[in-house]
Design brief:
The protein is built from 7 helices and 17 strands. By secondary structure, it is an alpha/beta fold. The protein folds into 2 domains: 245 residues, QueA-like, CATH 3.40.1780; 69 residues, Beta Barrel (Thrombin, subunit H). Strands 2-1-17-16-14-3-12-13-15 form a 9-stranded mixed beta sheet. The protein has a 6-stranded antiparallel beta sheet with strand order 5-6-7-10-9-8, with no helix packed on it. A two-stranded parallel sheet has the order 4-11. Helix 6 crosses helix 7. The longest helix is centred in the last third of the chain and has 14 residues.
Length: 327
C-alpha cells in the first residue's frame, strides 16, 4: 500500500503538457486500461461509445466554469472567487495574501468589500457592498501549468458542451472530449459538482493521509438518482463525478437525490462502492487526482500506463488526451 507522497511522483517532460485544445474536441487519443487482465490499448476517444455494453450508464458533471479570476481595481491583488456564502459574500483566494489582512478593504469592479475572516487554508471571506459582476470584470481561470494567459477561445473550450449550472472554478476536464454527436450515442445522466480551488492546491504532507482535502458542493437530482440506481454499470466521466457517486454511496449505501458538499479523499486502498469504469485525463504528479485513479486501477498498473503514455507521447492534463479504465 502506497501512502507516501513520493510514491505518486513521476518524471514528466514539459513538452507533453497540452497548452491548447485540439481543433476537434473528440480528436484526442484514448488509452484503454483493462484492470483484470492488465492489458493496455491505444485508441481514439471517438471510439468511446464502442466500449460500453448494455446496462452501462455514463455519469457526467454538468457544472459550468465561471469567470472567477479578477483583480482589485488598483491592480495589486489577484482574486479567485471560489464560493458564495451569502448575499454578496464570497470565499476568495488572494495573491499576494499578505496585502489583504483581516479587516482590509478592497475594491473589485467598483464594488467595495472587507475581509471578514481568514480561513485556515488561507482563503479570505470577503463581504462586498454589492454584487461583483464577474461576467464583466472576471475571466476564466485556466490551470497555471498551461504556462500562458487565458485566451478568448478558452471561454468556450475550457467548458463542456453540456455545462449548465454555474459555480466551478475549474472544468471537469474528462467531459471536454465530448461532442453533441458522441454524447447522443451514449446512455447518460448528469450530476453537478462545482470544482473548487483544491484542483490547484498541491499535496504538501509527506504522508498523504495527513492531507486536508477541499470540500466541493454537489447535487444529484431525483431523475439522475433513479437512472443511476437502474444501471448495471456506472461509467464515471471524470474524477469529480467519482467523488459525487462514492460520497453518496458511502453515506447511504445507494445513490439518492441529494444537495450537499463532499471532502472525500479517495486514495489506495479505498474500496469503490458505486463506480465500475472511469474516463479520466492524465493527472499531475503527486496530485489527489492521480491518487484517486491509483485507488481505482491499482497504483502499479497506473504508473505502468503513465510510463507507456510518456513513451507514446500522449498529451497530458486539462487539454490533453484521456484514459478509459475498464473492469
Amino acid at each position: 500500500m502506497s501512502l507516501l507522497l513520493s510514491d505518486y511522483d513521476y518524471p514528466l517532460p514539459r513538452s507533453l503538457i497540452a497548452t491548447h485544445p485540439l481543433p476537434d474536441r473528440a480528436g484526442s487519443r484514448m488509452m484503454v486500461l483493462h484492470r483484470h487482465s492488465r492489458r493496455i490499448e491505444h485508441r481514439l476517444f471517438a471510439e468511446f461509445p464502442a466500449f460500453l455494453i448494455p446496462g452501462d450508464l455514463a455519469v457526467l458533471n454538468d457544472t459550468k466554469v465561471i469567470p472567477a479570476r479578477a483583480f482589485s481595481d488598483d491592480g495589486r491583488i489577484e482574486f479567485l472567487f471560489l464560493e458564495p456564502t451569502g448575499a454578496n459574500c464570497w470565499i476568495c483566494m488572494a495573491n499576494p495574501g499578505r496585502k489583504l489582512p483581516l479587516g482590509a478593504a478592497v475594491s473589485i469592479g467598483g464594488v467595495s468589500g472587507v475581509v471578514q475572516q481568514i480561513l485556515p487554508t488561507g482563503e479570505r471571506l470577503i463581504q462586498f457592498e454589492g454584487r461583483v459582476d464577474l461576467e464583466r470584470v472576471g475571466e476564466i481561470s485556466i490551470p497555471p501549468y498551461l504556462g500562458r494567459p487565458a485566451e478568448p477561445a478558452d471561454a468556450e473550450r475550457y467548458q463542456t458542451i453540456f455545462a449548465r449550472h454555474p459555480g466551478a472554478v475549474a472544468a471537469p476536464t474528462a467531459g471536454l472530449h465530448f461532442t453533441p454527436e458522441i454524447l447522443a450515442r451514449v446512455p447518460h445522466t448528469f450530476v453537478t459538482l462545482h470544482v473548487g480551488a483544491g484542483t490547484f492546491r498541491p499535496v504538501q504532507a509527506e504522508w498523504i493521509t495527513d492531507h486536508l482535502m477541499h470540500s466541493e458542493r454537489f447535487e444529484i437530482s431525483a431523475p439522475a438518482a433513479q437512472a443511476i440506481r437502474g444501471a448495471t454499470r456506472l461509467v464515471a466521466i471524470g474524477t469529480t463525478t467519482v467523488r459525487v457517486l462514492e460520497s453518496c454511496a458511502a453515506a447511504h449505501g445507494e445513490i439518492l437525490p441529494k444537495v450537499g458538499a463532499t471532502d472525500i479523499f479517495i486514495h489506495p486502498p479505498y474500496q469503490f462502492r458505486a463506480v465500475h469504469a472511469l474516463l479520466t485525463n492524465f493527472h499531475l504528479p503527486k496530485s489527489t487526482l492521480l491518487m484517486l485513479v491509483s485507488a481505482f486501477a491499482g497504483r502499479d498498473f497506473v504508473f505502468e500506463a503513465y510510463a507507456e503514455a510518456i513513451r507514446e507521447r500522449y498529451r497530458v492534463f486539462s487539454y490533453g488526451d484521456c484514459m478509459l479504465i475498464l473492469p
